[in-house]
């Protein structure tokens, strides 16, 4: 499951526009995988690593 | 030491031999104004110079007015072109750096095609940066964007819905300080699934060329 899928599982209300404005998921092609480069959502808190790991 | 009288067209001038370090082995046309050659102020009017070689001393440097002029020669104007030769996966809704493993040319060795896939020109100035990527998506948005110094800087296209799929790209004019500034190509797609890029010289590439000095 991708990072995007995990975040959407936690916050189904997020929209495509959110990921182009207040949230940025990024992969720098350095072998470290996807990560949250920016989280500036006005109401939803940035998920913790524990929350992400718990999503199946 | 007495000067030697030269006659250029309708005018005359005297050039001390001690100051004369110019060679007039080929045709030289000098206008009708007074001309002084040597180490003092030189004024040339309506001059036509053909096949001129600028060579001042052992360093081969020339002084050009810097206030309004820009000297551009191929030796100090970096240009590169690189393309993707191995496909990569692009996760949904994730800005993903495009890996570009193969150089077509890199005149100043400023593009890293092995580790960071970034262009770091060592000559300051304004560069036309262009790129394209086919992320392999058939639906959703496709954005190809240039990151400068690690941050999204110039989208190369208006986000478009790829009704029939295919890549997208564009170009932007970007200033580089010649030391620390660098750019990378990123791609973004919203098919809802991970996609695989098309790796080919015509499909996924990144280029830049200096267009003027700083």
Compact overview of the structure:
Chain A has three helices and two strands; from the N terminus they run H-H-E-E-H. Chain A is α+β, with helices and mostly antiparallel strands and 56 residues long. With 214 residues, chain B is an all-beta fold.
Descriptive notes:
The complex is a heterodimer of chains A (56) and B (214). Chain A is globular. The longest helix of chain A has 8 residues, at 3-10. Chain A has helices spanning 3-10, 18-21, 49-54, and strands spanning 23-27, 35-39. Chain A has 3 helices and 2 strands; from the N terminus they run ααββα. A two-stranded antiparallel ribbon of chain A has the order 1-2. With 56 residues, chain A is α+β, with helices and mostly antiparallel strands. Chain B has a 5-stranded antiparallel β-sheet with strand order 8-5-16-9-13, with no helix packed on it. In chain B, strands 7, 10, 11, 12 and 14 form a 5-stranded antiparallel β-sheet that branches. Chain B has 2 domains: 3-64, no CATH class; 74-213, Jelly Rolls (Sandwich), CATH 2.60.120.40. Chain B is built from no helices and 16 strands. In chain B, a hairpin with a 2-residue loop joins strand 1 (3-8) and strand 2 (11-16). Chain B is elongated and about 65 Å long. Chain B is an all-beta fold. The model of chain B is unreliable at 17-29 and 32-36 (pLDDT under 50). In chain B, 0% of the residues lie in helices and 38% in strands. Classes of the chains: A alpha+beta (56), B mainly beta (214). The A-B interface holds A 2-5, 16, 19-20, 24-30, 34, 37 and B 88, 91-99, 116-117, 141, 143, 152, 159, 186, 188, 190, 194. Strand 1 (23-27) of chain A pairs parallel with strand 7 (95-97) of chain B, so a sheet runs across the interface.
Q: Class by helix and strand content of chain B?
A: mainly beta
Overall tally of structural domains of chain B = 2
Percent of residues in β-strands of chain B: 35-45%
Largest sheet features of chain A: 2 strands, antiparallel
Task: Enumerate the spans of chain B where pLDDT stays under 50 for 5 or more consecutive residues.
Answer: 17-29, 32-36
Mean pLDDT of chain B: 78
Radius of gyration of chain A: 11 Å
Query: Number of helix segments of chain B?
Result: 0
User: Level of helix content of chain A?
Assistant: 25-40%
CATH class of the largest domain in chain B: Mainly Beta
What is the CATH T-level topology of the largest domain in chain B?
Jelly Rolls
